[in-house]
Design brief:
alpha/beta, 8-stranded mixed sheet, 8 helices, 8 strands, binds iron/sulfur cluster
Length: 242
């Protein structure tokens, strides 16, 4: 099995999928989300070469701690290393380990859907990030197009793969009532949606940009307050129930 490039591994993650999980941060991402707090994962050439069997071995060493959990592939963008991702999840499935993919869906291309068939057989859950519901705003926030993300959601639906829609709520950018209702409407469009998770924007990544000598596009944007997040969650919940 060929090696992949990973940025890092979080041994005991509790926010990216059910239970306690090993979160594998893949190296490389083609998006440039304004609020990204992991710009050090962008370069496809950085990170370290890692074999899927080594990741699995590390998981198995601590298997008792991962009660009701499993392995989550995050990043960066795991779909950019599709073969490595499939190899890792195949090994995990052979051991009866739950697999979860945290993705923007951006690399997906309907014309190449055949390349993804192997993944469909070893994928238990997807956390799909809908960064903005307006194609125009999506492009300005990420530098990429919204359409592949929606195409990937449709592909997941066709394969009956459960999906949790995620959305980062950024003050002044993705926190309007219209936008939040839009996220709910997208979630309702797909029969495989299990939930919508809203994540509040924080500015913790700003320091990383400074350290890397990069400018931070959201400098001055305040973190989302708890009560604003609660308001956003109520809007989404209402719209989902309509
Ligand atoms: S998709 Fe994720 S890793 Fe890539 S730029 Fe956006 S937030 Fe950062």
């Amino acid at each position: 099995m060929p090696a992949g490039r990973i940025h890092s591994i979080e041994s005991f993650g509790t926010t990216d999928g059910p239970g306690v999980r090993m979160v594998v941060f893949f190296q490389g991402c083609l998006l440039r989300c304004a609020y990204c707090h992991n710009p050090d994962t962008w370069s496809c050439k950085a990170g370290r070469e890692t074999h899927p069997a080594d990741v699995l071995e590390r998981f198995l060493r601590n298997r008792n701690y991962y009660a009701h959990g499993g392995i989550t592939a995050s990043g960066g963008e795991p779909l950019l290393q599709l073969d490595f991702l499939c190899d890792l999840f195949e090994l995990a499935h052979k051991e009866g380990i739950h697999t979860c993919l945290d993705t923007s869906g951006a690399p997906f291309c309907t014309l190449e859907a055949g390349r993804y068939e192997r993944l469909a057989g070893v994928l238990d859950l997807v956390l799909l990030d809908i960064k903005h519901t307006s194609p125009h705003e999506y492009s300005s926030l990420t530098g990429a197009e919204l359409a592949p993300t929606l195409a990937f959601a449709r592909w997941l639906e066709l394969h009956n793969i459960p999906m949790v829609i995620r959305h980062v709520v950024v003050p002044g950018i993705t926190n309007s009532e219209e936008e939040l209702c839009g996220v709910s409407r997208i979630a309702k469009r797909f029969s495989n949606t299990q939930a919508v998770e809203l994540l509040g924007y924080h500015a913790l990544g700003e320091k990383k940009y400074k350290k890397l000598g990069m400018s931070y596009r959201l400098a001055g944007v305040p973190p989302l307050r708890d009560k604003e997040l609660a308001w956003a969650r109520a809007i989404v919940k209402d719209e989902l129930q309509k």
